[in-house]
């Protein structure tokens, strides 16, 4: 119970602080900035939704329905962009399209084309949509691919026999049946958009997330930050609501288990070339080219950047991420085990609260944690030390940062652990207790060894997410404390893009490991 | 009139050693119900899918109402064949209502799709619940919807893959009869696949039996049952007993006793006498009979099966009425009123 209360802290904070008077700068923001925040946030959300839909669904359909050269590789190559945090993708592309970047240099030297500045300028709203879409479309790709693959083959056959061709079948049967999955994927991508700070900040596009930062850092106005966070949360709940409401009365899984393995169609040679090119281009744009650019930068700068300090940074980031991962998984085990042994229904619903954090943007969590901690510090100081001095006790410590990571990434670690528990079922546990082992002993001797892989994957997934995390870390990190993510972002914003590539590359490479791992997990479930 | 014709159709799946369908040829008459029977792996479902256009043969031709739809590697795609199919798992679109499912295959040009769909649903005995989704219906109702969806576009031929396998025994007899009546009422030509001989014999006008990809026999049910062309077909439709018999002047000498038969003198060597359990009768001692020791009596409600053994331990099974009591009886007499003679040696 205590765990749950702690995890819900940021939400409570924001809710209760809403009743306080808004800060001085609130009026200023309402008058001058709020409309822009709204407009930009909504435009980016819509733009990314459309782009991820087009990119994700088209590639998922090709990969799951046709046999063409490279199909097997694209199944996981197209997931790799997930390893690219948006902000890194953003400044990599800025570098790529720069006056001195490879594309303009190539055009100039080969064709003597001088590109007008505005043409390749992506540091604007459409640019942000582009960057966020190519990093987030794999969510839609992954989830709709597994939906397409799991659709009963006979439904497609039934549609053919009723006179529909392949195109009509796609639009009338396959697509509507995959709709809940696709919408879930887009909803996931939208959450990431709302969470994003690095990309929009770097591109100078003002959204609610940048607004929170502005209120917090520049204006020093906590209650205005809270107000903005509350509005951002409204966006989150609207998206969550739309996602669950669109399911309606229908059932989308086929009711029968009798399913034929999906046989992929072998298209004509021309179409094979077309399909392979589509997937190749998307892969090149969304991963390979920016990745090469990063490698190039690293090769230019590694001798300057990589020194003892850099390794210390890597070490600290890894420890921070590993500790967070371990704590999240440990808490998940405690929660789930209590749940398993608890006879009460309401316990089940309450634990769902624990996984809500993933939907809440990092900046909101940061603000929601910072404010109660600041007042706690104040109270401790005035009560125990001196009424006059004010200092930091919890706020601005690693403890606060780890706590925030736990709130935000609880779901990431919780879900694999839950899946693990579900898979082993209740009977082994009951058998063990009937044989006389106490429930704690049963947990150590029976359940935990059985769900070992789930535990490891939980830790790994949290680890990677923490490593990439930017907005929350920027707000809550101790003074002058750097992680790989913040270092990369700071360097990039300070015109040291090439140097920042070293930290970025480590983040991406670590991020790729669980992606491949995750893909294997999904593949196993497919028929 | 011939509506469907298969000629020398071959099909081998990738990576498979043997042909799934091997040189199969047969015709189907308009308005006829044909059953394709066989064990699993006999190729019966493949034949159905070849006709539907969901698989393509390696060689052979298939023609449907006068048009060649398959000739060697050339074939008309499934969505242009006007073939209706009821899938084993029904394959109802879960995201569409009952009515939308039935309307799915109807063209706007064909009149009023909603009206046609409703009429077809009425025909199969579903007069309400048009707006429900498939998962809200029972298995039997889902099957009716699948049938309605298949026949609504007025296909040239209706194919059904194991139409009765998902129904429980109680429902099966009723559904079998209903479906037969619906098909006959619409006058549509139908082919269905089944592994259940009872389904085939009771529902179909003609039955085709497949074994290892080869067509064994195609005939009306009575002929298949009573005059099978080979032992495989004979055994497929029910148990057959065999007794080894030596021909004598007036009849057969067997280990169960003597059978008077003037046919016997035409044979020189030992033969096998083949007969189904219902072709024998258990009787009280009365003239010339066979006799055996009672080994086992199995009670089935509608009848009993009596297993009898000769002195060497060879066994035959005779069917008898359920009222007969065998309490305290160790040996029983029986006679055969019908058997086939097979020269096996």
Structural account:
The complex is a heterodimer of chains A (527) and B (345). Chain A has 2 domains: 32-247 and 263-286, MetI-like fold; 301-526, MetI-like (MetI-like fold), CATH 1.10.3720. Helix content of chain A is 77%, strand content 0%. Chain A contains 23 helices and no strands. Chain A has helices spanning 2-17, 24-32, 34-65, 71-77, 86-97, 102-111, 125-150, 153-161, 166-195, 198-203, 208-218, 222-245, 269-305, 308-341, 345-354, 362-385, 398-424, 427-434, 439-450, 452-468, 471-476, 484-493, 497-525. The two termini of chain A are 40 Å apart. In chain A, 45% of the residues are buried. Residues 254-258 of chain A have low confidence and may be disordered. Chain B has a 6-stranded mixed β-sheet with strand order 7-8-9-3-10-11, with helices on both faces. Chain B has a 5-stranded antiparallel β-sheet with strand order 2-1-4-5-6, with helices on one face. Chain B has a 5-stranded antiparallel β-sheet with strand order 14-13-12-15-21, with no helix packed on it. Chain B is of the alpha+beta class and 345 residues long. Chain B has 2 domains: 2-236, P-loop containing nucleotide triphosphate hydrolases (Rossmann fold, 3-Layer(aba) Sandwich), CATH 3.40.50.300; 241-342, Nucleic acid-binding proteins (OB fold (Dihydrolipoamide Acetyltransferase, E2P)). Chain B has helices at 44-52, 98-103, 113-123, 139-151, 169-186, 197-203, 221-226, 231-236, and strands at residues 2-11, 21-29, 33-37, 59-64, 67-71, 74-75, 83-86, 157-161, 190-194, 206-211, 214-219, 241-247, 251-254, 257-260, 271-275, 280-283, 290-299, 304-309, 315-320, 331-336, 340-342. Chain B contains 8 helices and 21 strands. The longest helix of chain B has 18 residues, at 169-186. Chain B: This is Iron(III) transport system ATP-binding protein. Chain B: It holds the Pfam family TOBE_2. Chain B: GO terms for molecular function: ABC-type ferric iron transporter activity; ATP binding; ATP hydrolysis activity. Chain B: Keywords: ATP-binding, Cell membrane, Ion transport, Iron, Iron transport, Membrane, Nucleotide-binding, Transport.
